[in-house]
C-alpha cells in the first residue's frame, strides 16, 4: 500500500472513455432485472468497502471526540474537542507537520527534475532502454524494509559507504547523516528519491509517448536544435504530467511513514517525526486512541483537501484539452 | 495522456516507436553530440542508481566479520560466501515470513480482482437505480487515505477477533477502489453488441460476466493482480501493527521488528534485505511490461 | 481470440484456486492454520518474548538453550527478540489486546507498572511461586518491593542493573587514583571527585569522563542526572501521582545540571559523544572513566588489551544513589490452564536458576540463591560494584514513564542538550515543562 498502491489511493479522473454502453437508452427487455443483479454484483466489494473503509472512517471521527483507550473496549469518557485542542496546541504535532512539509520540499524537486531528465534522455536512446528502465524503475517495486536496511547501512557513521565516498572526495565524514537532527531528514529524502524516482520516470516516459512525432519532425525541418526541441515542445507538453507528479508527490509525502519508522523512528529526538508516526505513537505507544484519532482526522482533512485540488485541477485541464 | 494501461484490442508499448528515438536517419552532427552526451549522462546516473543495490548484494556475500569493518573492507575483499543466506534459511523464521507474505498477497490479489471486477461489471454493464450514486460513492472512496485509518482498522479487527491472523492483513486491503475504477474503465470500452448477442443467446448476467467479460479482461486482470500483489507484499504499516506473532509476520515486518541477538551482523542484515525483495525482483523480470504499464496506468488514472 | 480467452479464464480460476489451495493443503502446518483459522500455534511450545540484543542477547540464548535441554528439546520453547524500547512494549500491549500474547515476556520493572495498570498482566500469586518452589524471600528486597503493586506481584525480577562507573586502569594509575588493591580510591565527595577529574584530564589531555549524549542517546543523560539528583537529601520524586504531577525539586535540578555544565566547560566531561564513541574513549585511554549501565561489561571485556575495572557511582552529595531498573518476567493476560501456568512459571524458575550466566553479563542477580552464592561473590569485577544495586533508584511510576519511555526521551534529550551546552538549565527546565504538559494534563489512558 505504500509503494505500488500509493498512487492508487489518490484520485481518479472521472473522464473515462464513455463508449456506446455508458448511457442508458430505452430499457430493453434484456435490461429488466438488472437492478437485483447489480446489487448482488456490488455486494461483495460493497461489504468490504463499508466495513474496512467507511466504517473505520466513521469510527475514527467518533473516537476523536472521546478519551478512547487502546486497552479498553469501550469508547471512554466524552472529550468534546479536547483532543483536537490538544493536537492543535502540541508543539510536536506542528513539528510533525513541518517535517512532512520539509520532506516534500526536499524530495519533490529532485524527483521531478531527475525523473524528467532521465525520461527525456532514455526516450532518445535507441539501444539499451531496458537497462535504464531497470536501473531507475526497479527500486520502486522493492519493499520499504529493503530500502531502509540498505540505506541505513550505506549511512553507517564513519565506516559506511556514504562516509567512504565522502573520504574519497576529500571530505570529513561527520557523525553520520541520520544521527544529526539537522541532516537526518536529508538522509531519508535521499533514500526516498532513490526509491520512488522510478514511478515518476515511467509516468514521464508515458507522457512522452503521447507527443506526436510530427511535432519533432517539423521542428527539425525548421532547424530547431535538440535543446530547443526539448525546451519548446517536450517541456510544455509534459507540463500536465509534471503537475500530476507534484500533486501525487505531495499526497505521498503527507502519508510518509515507512522510511521514517525504519530509518530513524522519528529521531534523533523528534527531528524526523512525521504525522503518521505521531498518530501510531499516540495510539500504539501511549495507548491513546482518542487523541490519535483526532490527529488522524486532521491529517485526513489535509490529504482530502489536496486530493480535491488535484481533482479540480484535472477537470479544468481536461476541459482545456477538450 | 490517453495511454491507457490496458485497453481491449489495442495495446501499445511506449518503449518503441517513440518519435525522438526513431528519427535516426536524420540526425545531424548536433544530434550526434546530443546522443553521446545523453548516453553518458544516463549511464553515469544509472550506475549511481545501481550502486546501493549492488553494494547491498556485495555485503550480503561478504563475511560478517569483514562487513563489520566498513565499506572499504567490503569493497576490497573478494571472498564471496553464501553464509549469510544459509544462516537465514536455517533459522527458519524466513520461511514463515515468506509464507505469510505469499499467502496474504495472493489471497488479497485474488479477492480484489474478483470483487472489484464484479462491482465494476455492475457499474459498467448493468442498468439500475442508484448506480450513478453508487459510482460517485466509490469515486469518493478513492480520496480516503487508507494509511490514516490504521488506528480504527486495528480496533475493528480487534472486535472481529481477527488480529494476528492473515485475514487482518488481507481484508483491509481488499476494498481497493482504484481497482474498481480501472476495471470499469476497461469494461466501458467493450462493445455492448457482444454482450447483447450473448444475452439474446440466453446467457444470464453471471454468465456474461464470467464467460464473456472476464476472458476479455485478461490484461487488466493481470495488471491489477500484480499491482495488488506487490502492494500487499510491500505493505509495512498495516501488518506491523496487526501481526504481533513472529510466526505470522510478513517478511518486511519480520525484518523490521525481530532483531538477531548477535549484535551488528551487517552481512546477514543485507541478506535479509535482499531476500525480502527477491520474489519481487523475479516478478519484475517476468512481468516487466505489465508492472510498468500497470503502475503508469494507476498513476495516470489514480 | 475465443480460445485464448478460454485459457485465460481457466488460468485465472486456477490461480485463484491455487491461492486458496495452498493453505487448504497444508492446513496441518502450524503458521498457516494459525494465520487463517486463528488456531493456536503448537500449544505445547512455550512462547517467550524479550528485547535483549548484544551481549545480553547471547547470554539469554544460552539460558534458553539450558531450558530446552531439560524440557524436551528445541520444540519446547519459541523465543523472539524484538527491537528495544517503545516498539517492544507496543508489541506486548497490542498482542495482549489482540488475545495472542506470549506465555512469558521480559519487561523492565518500570514498564511493568503501566502494563499492569492497563490490564495487560496476570498477577503472580504465592501459589504460582510455590508451584515451582519459589517464595518472596528468594528475591532481593529492593526490586521485589518495587514490583509489588496494590498488594499484587506483577513481575518477577531477574536482576537489578544500576548505573555504574567504568574506569581505565592505565589512565587512573597514571593519575595516581588507584589504591594498593589496584582499585579506584574512594571519591565520595564533590571535592575529591573533581580533583580526580582534574588529574585524569591532565593524563588524557582531554576529557576525564564520558557520558553518551548525542545521536538519539537520551537514556544515558537521564541515568546520570537522576543518579546525582537522588544523591541529594532533599530530592523529591520527579513525577508523582502516576505522572500527573511534576514534583521535581527545581533547585536541585539547577544545581546538578549546572554542575554537569561546569565539568564540560572545564574540559573534564565530553560535550557531545554518541553511545559507541563515548565508551571507546574510555577503552582507548582518551578518557579515564565512563558512566553507563553495567551491561557494557561484555563490550569492554572484548576489547583487546584493555585493563578496566568498575565501581559504584561515587557519592558526591548527601547519600549514595544509582539510577537502576530491573529486568523482570511478566505473564501477559491470557486464558491459561493450570498446566500452562505451571509451564510458564517453570520457565521463569529455570531462567532464575541460570542467573549466574546472566550475572556474567554484568547484571546484579535478584535471585538470592545466586546473588548470595560464593560463586557470584567471587566474580570480578562484578563484586566491585554489586553494592550499587542496594541504592537503586527506579524511575517514578507514570503511564508514559519507565526505561526507554516517552518521559525518558523528552527529559533525556533536554539533559543531553544541557551537556552539549546547547541549552541552559533554565531553558531545559522550560522545555521539559512545556513538553511534559500534554502528558501531565492527560488522564492515564490505561
TrEMBL record, chain A:
* Family note: Belongs to the binding-protein-dependent transport system permease family.
Keyword Transmembrane attached: yes
Instruction: Please state where this protein is localized.
Output: Cell membrane
UniProt-listed Gene3D superfamilies: MetI-like (1.10.3720.10)
Looking at the UniProt entry, the stretches that span the membrane are 39-66, 103-122, 134-164, 184-206, 237-257, 291-313
Q: What is the name attached to this protein's record?
A: Sugar ABC transporter permease
Question: Which UniProt keywords are listed?
Answer: Cell membrane, Membrane, Transmembrane, Transmembrane helix, Transport
Q: Where is this region: Disordered?
A: 1-29
Question: What single Pfam family name could you report for this chain, choosing any that match?
Answer: BPD_transp_1
Membrane topology for this entry? Multi-pass membrane protein
Annotated source species: Gryllotalpicola kribbensis
Domain (ABC transmembrane type-1) ranges: 97-310
UniProtKB/TrEMBL annotation, chain B:
Question: Which chain regions cross the lipid bilayer?
Answer: 36-57, 97-123, 135-154, 166-187, 208-230, 269-287
Q: Per the annotation, which location comes first and is thus the protein's main one?
A: membrane
Q: How does it sit in the membrane?
A: Multi-pass membrane protein
Q: Where is the ABC transmembrane type-1 domain?
A: 98-287
Q: Name the protein family.
A: Belongs to the binding-protein-dependent transport system permease family.
Highest lineage ranks of the organism? Bacteria, Bacillati, Actinomycetota, Actinomycetes, Micrococcales
Q: Which UniProt keywords apply?
A: Cell membrane, Membrane, Transmembrane, Transmembrane helix, Transport
Where it sits in the cell: the answer is:
Cell membrane
According to its UniProt entry, this protein's organism is: Gryllotalpicola kribbensis
Give a yes or no for keyword Endoplasmic reticulum in this entry: no
InterPro entries named in the record? MetI-like, MetI-like_sf
Q: Which Pfam families match?
A: BPD_transp_1
Q: What is this protein called?
A: Carbohydrate ABC transporter permease
The highest taxon in the source lineage is Bacteria
UniProtKB/TrEMBL annotation, chain C:
Q: What protein is this chain from?
A: Extracellular solute-binding protein
A Pfam family recorded for this sequence = SBP_bac_1
Answer whether the UniProt record assigns the keyword Signal to this protein: yes
Segment forming the signal sequence: 1-29
What is the phylogenetic placement of the source species in the record?
Bacteria, Bacillati, Actinomycetota, Actinomycetes, Micrococcales
Query: Does the keyword Transferase belong to this entry?
Result: no
The family database entries (InterPro entries) matched by this protein are listed as:
Bact_solute-bd_prot1, SBP, TAT_signal
- List keywords of the entry alphabetically: Signal
* Species per Swiss-Prot/TrEMBL record: Gryllotalpicola kribbensis
Amino acid at each position: 500500500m505504500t509503494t505500488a498502491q500509493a498512487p492508487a489511493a489518490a484520485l481518479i479522473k472521472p473522464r473515462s472513455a464513455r463508449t456506446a454502453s455508458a448511457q442508458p437508452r430505452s430499457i430493453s427487455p434484456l435490461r429488466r432485472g438488472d437492478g437485483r443483479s447489480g446489487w448482488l454484483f456490488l455486494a461483495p466489494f460493497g461489504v468490504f468497502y463499508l466495513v474496512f473503509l467507511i466504517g473505520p472512517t466513521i469510527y475514527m471521527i467518533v473516537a476523536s471526540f472521546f478519551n478512547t483507550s487502546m486497552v479498553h473496549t469501550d469508547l471512554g469518557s466524552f472529550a468534546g474537542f479536547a483532543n483536537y485542542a490538544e493536537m492543535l496546541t502540541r508543539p510536536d504535532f506542528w513539528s510533525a507537520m513541518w517535517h512532512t512539509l520539509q520532506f516534500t520540499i526536499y524530495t519533490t524537486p529532485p524527483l521531478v527534475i531527475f525523473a524528467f531528465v532521465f525520461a527525456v534522455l532514455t526516450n532518445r536512446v535507441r539501444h539499451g532502454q531496458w537497462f535504464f528502465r531497470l536501473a531507475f524503475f526497479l527500486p520502486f517495486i522493492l519493499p520499504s524494509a529493503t530500502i531502509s536496511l540498505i540505506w541505513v547501512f550505506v549511512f553507517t557513521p564513519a565506516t559506511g559507504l556514504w562516509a567512504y565516498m565522502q573520504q574519497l572526495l576529500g571530505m570529513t565524514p561527520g557523525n553520520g547523516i541520520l544521527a544529526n537532527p539537522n541532516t537526518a531528514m536529508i538522509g531519508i529524502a535521499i533514500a526516498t528519491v532513490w526509491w520512488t524516482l522510478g514511478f515518476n520516470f515511467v509516468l514521464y516516459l508515458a507522457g512522452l509517448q503521447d507527443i506526436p512525432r510530427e511535432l519533432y519532425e517539423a521542428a527539425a525541418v525548421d532547424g530547431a536544435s535538440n535543446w530547443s526541441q526539448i525546451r519548446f515542445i517536450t517541456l510544455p507538453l509534459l507540463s500536465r504530467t509534471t503537475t500530476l507528479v507534484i500533486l501525487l508527490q505531495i499526497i505521498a509525502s503527507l502519508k510518509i511513514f515507512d522510511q521514517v519508522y525504519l530509518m530513524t523512528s522519528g529521531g534523533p529526538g523528534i527531528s524526523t517525526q512525521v504525522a503518521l508516526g505521531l498518530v501510531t505513537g499516540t495510539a500504539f505507544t501511549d495507548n491513546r486512541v482518542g487523541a490519535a484519532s483526532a490527529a488522524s482526522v486532521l491529517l485526513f482533512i489535509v490529504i482530502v483537501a489536496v486530493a480535491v485540488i488535484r481533482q479540480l485541477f484535472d477537470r479544468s485541464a481536461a476541459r482545456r484539452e477538450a | 495522456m490517453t495511454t491507457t494501461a490496458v485497453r481491449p484490442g489495442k495495446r501499445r508499448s511506449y518503449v518503441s516507436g517513440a518519435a525522438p528515438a526513431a528519427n535516426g536517419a536524420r540526425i545531424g552532427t548536433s544530434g550526434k553530440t546530443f546522443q553521446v552526451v545523453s548516453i553518458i549522462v544516463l549511464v553515469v546516473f544509472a550506475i549511481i542508481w545501481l550502486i546501493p543495490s549492488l553494494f547491498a548484494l556485495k555485503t550480503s556475500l561478504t563475511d560478517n566479520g569483514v562487513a563489520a569493518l566498513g565499506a572499504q573492507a567490503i569493497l576490497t575483499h573478494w571472498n564471496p560466501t553464501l553464509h549469510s543466506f544459509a544462516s537465514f534459511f536455517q533459522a527458519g523464521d524466513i520461511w514463515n515470513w515468506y509464507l505469510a507474505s505469499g499467502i496474504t498477497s495472493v489471497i488479497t490479489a485474488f479477492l480484489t480482482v474478483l470483487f472489484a471486477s464484479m462491482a465494476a461489471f455492475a457499474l459498467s454493464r448493468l442498468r439500475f437505480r442508484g448506480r450513478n450514486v453508487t459510482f460517485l460513492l466509490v469515486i469518493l472512496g478513492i480520496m480516503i487515505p487508507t494509511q490514516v485509518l490504521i488506528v480504527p482498522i486495528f480496533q475493528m479487527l480487534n472486535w472481529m477477533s481477527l488480529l494476528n491472523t492473515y485475514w487482518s492483513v488481507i481484508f483491509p486491503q481488499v476494498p481497493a477502489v482504484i481497482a474498481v475504477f480501472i476495471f470499469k474503465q476497461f469494461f466501458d470500452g467493450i462493445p455492448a453488441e457482444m454482450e447483447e448477442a450473448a444475452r439474446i443467446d440466453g446467457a444470464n448476467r453471471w454468465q456474461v460476466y464470467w464467460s464473456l467479460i472476464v476472458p476479455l479482461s485478461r490484461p487488466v486482470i493481470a495488471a491489477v493482480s500484480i499491482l495488488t500483489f506487490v502492494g500487499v507484499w510491500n505493505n509495512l504499516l498495516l501488518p506491523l501493527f496487526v501481526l504481533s506473532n513472529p510466526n505470522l509476520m510478513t517478511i518486511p515486518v519480520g525484518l523490521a521488528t525481530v532483531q538477531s541477538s548477535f549484535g551488528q551482523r551487517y552481512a546477514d542484515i543485507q541478506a535479509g534485505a535482499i531476500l525480502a525483495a527477491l520474489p519481487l525482483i523475479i516478478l519484475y523480470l517476468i512481468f516487466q511490461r505489465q508492472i510498468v504499464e500497470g503502475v503508469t496506468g494507476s498513476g495516470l488514472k489514480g | 481470440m475465443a480460445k485464448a480467452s478460454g485459457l485465460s479464464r481457466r488460468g485465472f480460476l486456477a490461480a485463484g484456486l491455487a491461492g486458496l489451495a495452498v493453505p487448504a493443503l497444508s492446513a496441518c502446518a502450524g503458521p498457516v492454520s494459525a494465520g487463517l483459522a486463528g488456531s493456536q500455534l503448537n500449544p505445547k511450545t512455550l512462547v517467550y518474548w524479550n528485547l535483549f540484543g548484544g551481549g545480553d542477547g547471547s547470554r539469554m540464548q544460552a539460558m534458553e538453550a539450558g531450558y530446552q535441554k531439560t524440557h524436551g528439546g528445541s520444540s519446547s520453547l519459541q523465543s523472539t527478540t524484538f527491537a528495544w524500547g517503545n516498539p517492544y512494549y507496543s508489541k506486548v500491549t497490542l498482542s495482549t489486546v489482540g488475545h495472542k500474547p506470549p506465555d512469558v515476556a521480559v519487561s523492565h520493572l518500570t514498564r511493568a507498572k503501566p502494563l499492569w495498570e492497563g490490564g495487560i498482566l496476570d498477577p503472580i500469586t504465592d501459589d504460582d511461586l510455590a508451584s515451582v518452589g519459589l517464595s518472596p524471600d528468594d528475591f532481593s528486597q529492593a526490586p521485589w518491593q518495587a514490583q509489588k503493586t496494590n498488594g499484587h506481584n506483577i513481575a518477577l525480577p531477574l536482576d537489578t542493573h544500576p548505573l555504574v562507573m567504568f574506569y581505565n586502569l592505565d589512565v587512573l594509575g597514571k593519575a595516581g587514583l588507584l589504591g594498593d588493591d589496584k582499585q579506584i580510591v574512594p571519591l565520595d565527595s564533590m571535592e575529591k571527585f573533581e580533583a580526580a577529574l582534574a588529574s585524569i584530564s591532565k593524563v588524557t589531555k582531554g576529557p576525564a569522563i564520558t557520558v553518551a549524549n548525542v545521536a538519539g542517546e537520551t537514556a544515558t543523560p537521564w541515568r546520570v542526572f537522576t543518579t546525582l539528583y537522588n544523591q541529594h537529601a532533599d530530592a523529591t520524586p520527579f513525577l508523582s501521582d502516576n505522572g500527573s504531577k511534576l514534583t521535581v525539586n527545581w533547585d536541585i535540578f539547577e544545581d546538578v545540571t549546572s554542575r554537569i555544565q561546569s565539568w564540560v566547560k572545564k574540559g573534564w566531561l565530553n560535550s557531545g559523544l554518541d553511545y559507541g564513541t563515548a565508551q571507546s574513549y574510555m577503552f582507548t585511554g582518551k578518557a579515564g572513566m565512563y558512566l553507563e549501565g553495567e551491561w557494557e561489561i561484555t563490550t569492554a571485556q572484548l576489547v583487546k588489551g584493555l585493563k578496566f575495572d568498575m565501581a559504584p557511582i561515587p557519592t558526591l552529595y548527601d547519600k549514595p544513589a544509582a539510577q537502576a531498573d530491573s529486568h523482570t518476567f511478566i505473564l501477559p493476560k491470557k486464558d491459561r490452564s493450570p498446566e500452562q501456568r505451571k509451564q510458564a512459571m517453570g520457565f521463569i524458575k529455570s531462567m532464575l536458576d541460570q542467573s549466574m550466566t546472566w550475572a556474567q553479563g554484568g547484571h546484579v542477580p535478584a535471585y538470592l540463591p545466586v546473588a548470595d552464592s560464593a560463586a557470584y561473590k567471587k566474580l570480578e569485577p562484578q563484586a566491585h560494584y554489586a553494592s550499587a544495586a542496594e541504592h537503586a533508584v527506579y524511575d517514578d511510576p507514570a503511564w508514559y514513564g519507565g526505561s526507554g519511555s516517552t518521559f525518558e526521551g523528552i527529559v533525556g534529550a533536554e539533559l543531553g542538550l544541557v551537556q552539549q551546552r546547547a541549552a541552559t538549565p533554565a531553558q531545559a527546565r522550560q522545555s521539559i515543562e512545556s513538553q511534559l504538559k500534554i502528558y501531565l494534563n492527560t488522564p492515564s489512558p490505561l
